[in-house]
Amino acid sequence: MENHPSSSRLYTLVSAKAKEIETELKRLNRWQSEPPPAEKFENMGAFGSNTMAFEQWIQFILIPRIQETVHGRGEFPTESRLAPYAVRVFDGDAESENLQELLYELDKLINEPTPPEVTDTTASISTPHYSPELETIPEVVYVLAEVLPQFKGEDLESQLQTIDVFLQMLSSSNRQSISDILLKAA
Question: For the chain, what is the domain count?
Answer without folding.
Answer: 2
